[in-house]
Design a protein that fits this description.
Length: about 140
């Protein structure tokens, strides 16, 4: 409704952004001079004012994606580091077993229990990551702004 009124408005409209101000997201849409270029003008401090700025959550979502958050969780959280270490050890152990064809093990039974353990570790890791993800998203907004 405001945008429609501004589009038909025939008097001059001046938008001024003082120094160190920001015009974010939805507010930008309402006062964008492109709505009525013949009558709307925008003025802002060229050094310290910013317009058309995304909210912190939007910027973080673009610059610091979920994959990056998961990588950060894996790097910083002790539980995730331990689970990843166990998974890597299990993978190395499985590779060593497959290389030793001389020894006669019941590798089929052993592989099943290893695969079950691997799946349990993956499930625990994903559960921990999902538990921590909201906190890391919230903190990332603070550090980007």
């Amino acid at each position: 409704m405001i945008i429609d009124s501004l589009r038909r408005y025939t008097k001059p409209v001046f938008v001024y952004l003082p120094p160190n101000s920001q015009l974010r997201g939805g507010a930008w849409v309402v006062v964008d001079p492109a709505i009525n270029p013949d009558f709307m003008e925008m003025y802002a401090d060229p050094i310290s004012s910013r317009a058309g700025v995304l909210e912190p959550e939007g910027t973080v979502e673009i610059k610091y994606r979920q994959k990056d958050l998961i990588d950060t969780i894996n790097r910083l959280d002790d539980s995730c580091k331990l689970l990843l270490k166990e998974l890597n050890h299990l993978n190395e152990h499985t590779n060593n077993l497959s290389m030793n064809n001389d020894q006669q093990y019941s590798t089929k039974l052993l592989n099943i229990s290893i695969e079950e353990h691997r799946q349990q570790l993956r499930t625990a890791l994903e559960s921990r990551q999902q538990e921590l993800l909201p906190f890391y998203q919230q903190v990332s907004c603070c550090f980007f702004f």
